[in-house]
């Protein structure tokens, strides 16, 4: 099943923290992998219950599946992505 990828507005801020090459690599992986296999990645626990994570090297993509859409909520380094702002 192919999912539509939808980005939260704050994703632009997350991507500005990455280098241009890294942000492009992350976006390409999201478009390729999550659009086809979003339901295959781990479900989070604790305060992130119901959300899922997708690992791209040292970066994590936190997302939710809403019907036919994948809502990308956060993109960040693995040390920082789970912390509250």
- What's the mean pLDDT score? 92
How would you write the strand order of the largest sheet?
1-4-3-2
Q: Categorize the overall geometry.
A: globular
- And the CATH topology? YaeB-like fold
Which structural class best describes the helix and strand composition? alpha+beta
Spans of at least 5 consecutive residues whose pLDDT stays below 50 are none
How much of the sequence lies in strands comes to 25-35%
How many domains make up the coordinates?
1
Report the top-level CATH class: Alpha Beta
Please describe the biggest sheet, giving its number of strands, its sense, and whether it closes into a barrel.
4 strands, mixed
Order of helices and strands: EHHEEE
CATH homologous superfamily designation: RelE-like
What is the secondary structure topology, with strand pairs?
Layout: E1 4-7, H1 11-16, H2 20-37, E2 52-56, E3 59-66, E4 69-77
Parallel strand pairs: 1-4
Antiparallel strand pairs: 2-3, 3-4
Describe, in plain words, how this protein is organized in 3D.
The chain is 28% helix and 31% strand. By secondary structure, it is an alpha+beta fold. It has a single domain, classed as YaeB-like fold. It has a four-stranded mixed sheet with strand order 1-4-3-2. The longest helix has 18 residues, at 20-37. The protein is globular and about 30 Å long. It starts with a strand and ends in an 8-residue tail after the last strand.
What are the salient characteristics of this protein?
alpha+beta; YaeB-like fold; 4-stranded mixed sheet; 31% strand
């Amino acid at each position: 099943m192919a999912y539509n990828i939808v980005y939260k507005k704050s994703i632009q801020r997350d991507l500005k923290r990455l280098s241009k090459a890294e942000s492009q690599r992350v976006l390409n992986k999201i478009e390729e992998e999550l659009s086809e296999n979003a339901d295959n990645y781990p479900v989070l626990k604790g305060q992130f219950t119901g959300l899922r994570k997708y690992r791209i090297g040292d970066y994590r993509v936190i997302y939710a599946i809403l019907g036919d859409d994948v809502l990308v909520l956060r993109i960040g380094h693995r040390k920082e992505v789970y912390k509250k702002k």
